[in-house]
Amino acid sequence: MSYKIVVDSCCDLPVEYRKNPNFEVVPLILQIDDNVIVDDDTFDQADYLAKVAASKSCAKTACPSPELYMEAYDCQADDVYVVTLSSKLSGSYNSALLGKDLYHEEKGEKNIHIFDSLSACCGETNIALKAMELAESGLSFEKVVEEVEKYRDEMATYFVLDSLETLRKNGRLSGMKALVATTLNIKPVCIGSKGEILQKSQGIGIRKALVKMTDIVASEIKNSQEKRLMITHVNCYERACVVRDLILKKVPFKDAIIVDAAGVATTYAGDGGIVVTF
Description:
- The chain is an alpha/beta fold.
- It folds into two domains: about 5-30 and about 65-155, Dihydroxyacetone kinase, domain 1 (Rossmann fold); about 155-275, Hypothetical Protein Tm841, Chain: A,domain 3 (2-Layer Sandwich).
- The chain has ten helices and 13 strands.
- It has helices at about 15-20, 45-55, 65-75, 90-105, 120-135, 140-155, 165-170, 205-220, 235-250, 265-270, and strands at about 5-10, 25, 30, 35-40, 60, 80-85, 110-115, 155-160, 185-195, 195-205, 230-235, 255-260, 275.
- The strands form three sheets. It has a six-stranded mixed sheet with strand order 10-9-8-13-11-12, sandwiched between helices. A four-stranded parallel sheet has the order 2-1-6-7, with helices on both faces. It has a three-stranded antiparallel sheet with strand order 4-3-5, with helices on one face.
- Strand 3 (about 30) and strand 4 (about 35-40) form a beta hairpin.
- The chain starts with a strand and ends with a strand.
- The mean pLDDT is about 90.
């Protein structure tokens, strides 16, 4: 059976998959001041970060319309798997569901399943790549859905950011009871838990926070040799390499992939942000 994987643009796909006809990225919209930017292949991270740094406003994002999702489902593939941002962080998941309803009303029946990633950026990527692997193996649509949901539920997402301000101002930190004092240069180590953001630990300065995060990953992961380590970075590839190497010195993974953040992850993780998932 032929398949297609549809993701929203918070999914930080490696370049080779962006060009793969089995994948389609449905873009979110970014806004900073009067600048409205489509988060697609035209996204210029350096220019966007400069606009954010120069602005007194908080950058915002808007989820794709149901119609955009419906258009993505309208293809020759028998099975369509969709991976979106956590439903607790964005309206993208609900928009994808509405797009499915529209498709069935206008086009008829088709195997379409929408996965709420309960994560973001490289967490979405990990789920999308797992769906691809299972679909390529010849499993039935129902079995792929079952296995991917199991994989998602066992996945963990951690991150350390230079600043939490954009997340806070956009109401994405409702699960955190208290924020650490930024005046002391204390950087929280955060975890995505059931789609919400919680503080797991902290360090003085981003370097110590990143080391603390790698220690947490090493202490909490199980069956690491069977898993894929993925790291999203925002304009800090060398920092991402250090994090990868620190983790791999502690625990082995079957694969380790570093991806550059697209527009949505750049907006919320900010310049210098690191997200780790496995």
